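Sample entry (442 residues):
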Amino acid sequence: MFILRISAMTLAIGLMLAGVSAQPVSLEFRMPDEIPAGRETEVELIVNKGNLEGFARFQQTFPAGIMVIPVESAYADFAYDAGKLNLIWLKLPSDPVVRVVYRLKPDPKVKGSFNVGGKFSYLIENNRNDLKIENRIVRILPVPGADPSALVDIADYTPAAGQKTATGSPETTAAAAQDSYEINAYRQEPVPDASGKGYVVRVLLEKGSWNRSGILEEDILNQFEARPVETLGARFTFESGRARFVWLRMPADPYLVVSYELVPRVAGQNPKPSIQGKFSLVEGNDARQVMVSQRSFELNSTSQRDLAALAAELRLDTGSTESLPVMRKTGETVRETDRPVQETPAPEGIVFRVQVGAYSRPVNVNTFFKSMNLQDAVQMDRHAGLYKYTVGNFSSYREARAARDRIARSSLVDKPFICAFRNGRRIPVDEALRLSNQEWFK
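Predicted structure, serialized as tokens:
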């Protein structure tokens, strides 16, 4: 048996910047050098992650003729199809050590050897980090007494018609056949809560028979705190102006209604909420996504029959109130989404900026951030499907740190943080520090 141990020592700085333990992330992959054809062999992956949380994925590729069977998934979405193994955590378990166990079963008719490697990916401050398992050769032991002339080399193996090639979590393989379903999301116009000081927001989700991972993200573009009301089993978080409902397994009902309340951050101020959202169904490496459309409708019943009728009515009604009017100084009324959005590329070389927001749709930088009492010039760049807003172009990490602390003290920006660029492209902060011969400090 070989045991591979892979660690990411250089990521300690990035972990400290993310506000979690500076312990390096490491992997242990345990697998025999030889596995018998026609029988199951247990394989173990151990992730020593410390306090790391959030999204993570483990990927491996196997040749045709190898089945992968889940044993312990550590709450990951486990899927194996067409030779590709995917384990996806929308949020890693809180335990510092995560253990995943699965079994490999070669077809009884195969022989030869194959390479096995892998990659574990995770996020720190919206930057992806990868730990790779180097390829190793694994030999397949033929079934004792098998006719050598009837054996096929694993590299030349082709599954027979109708042969099972996919495994996964109990609902995974059934979900793989879900190719046709309606995806829509409708937000009811926010209504004042019982106190009259805040608002209640309800969102109708139409997702058909989909029962795998799903995410609803709502960017709150005014000064509110969001608190969960009805989550239907989702994990709710609110950070940097974004409310998120995350399901590892969505409820079985095709129509769902979730809700949250908005509480003004400043007592006595109760502006009308401005919200932009998206609803995503996560499938392996891909996501099917729709924008949340804000409408004026009554939501008096949550029975599936009534929700189906309401969704059908909303599909026919193309009216939307999701982009609120903005007044120019000349008095001309335009819509927020009609404004041209210009990216502000970072200069050449290593540059540090302070990120003050990230949204699925553009915002008016001339009014939105001033409402947060942020007086700095705000720049925008597109990254990972989001509009990300930053301040400054600092060659010194120390200067960026001082700017971040000042913004945190003097504005209403929620948790500003430092990001880094190299020749106009985002890179991890720890890499920028290394390339510019600078040191991280508190």
